[in-house]
Hints:
By secondary structure, the chain is α/β, with parallel strands linked by helices. Helices cover about 30% and strands about 25% of the residues. A nine-stranded mixed sheet has the order 5-4-1-8-9-10-11-12-13, with helices on both faces.
Amino acid sequence: MRFPFSIPDGRTIDVAGFGTNAVDFLIRVPHYPEFASKVELSEYFQAAGGEVATTMVGLARLGLRTSYAGRFGDDAAGEFGIDSLKVEGVGTEYAERVANARTQIAFIVIDESTGERTVIWQRDARLSYTAAEAPLALASQARVLHLTPHDTAACIEMARAARTAGTIVSIDIDNIFDGVEQLLCYVDVLVASAEFPARFLGISDPRAALAELRSRFGCGIAGVTLGASGSLLLAGDTFVDSAGYAVPNGCKDTTGAGDAFRVGLLYGMLTGRSVEESAAMANAVAALKCREVGARTALPRADELTTFLKN
């Protein structure tokens, strides 16, 4: 089936991102340590991450025009983070360095036996946007605005400006923030973590929860990611249940798998695929991402994605 909304053409940017970036410190261990125990790490890495910044990189690798709006500190991590976007061809005209602030960081412990991870993160309050500081001009330059709701008041202004301009609004959400109900009224593509609907609505059945989200907020697409099991989307009145793919040579790290899913879904949507095809692409990008450690390391190029889906 087709996506239940019209996507604008004639824009200078395919997808604009507004939201989180981070520098990740990834630590691989043979098994997740028990409380008050010690475990020797196998290896560790520093890599760029953050939900929205990673999604912009993934879409750029697939050949789309992307731009990122967000704040970094004036520390070495900030320079590393911005450079990681520039080298991938992501526009950084709306990226900022904040004096005396520290770039968001995350320490990620990865269990080698499963590839599952635990994230310990910190975001400097000085990186936050107020509603008045939202870069509204970006919302009308893109075909899609993709965001995370950490600075909810600013996101509401961005989403409102996007809706006025006819820009499709996509959200990556896994926690409840003050004002999120007002924000969701402007969202066309809502993809959440599996746990979010039950926390937000108190509805444990995912199909009933997605139907309630669509009814309450009018989202054209409402969905949840289900890890290795794949995903469930509600498009209009139709549920699309899409199975996950096995990770080639086994899962090494699930960090950023949800971001990768959104890469594939938005890529399929913007290149004229059906909802079913886009969901399959989303699951495929997520599986390919998990081949290596780090949120962005193994995000595929377009030819890799095509070959994987054919095989």
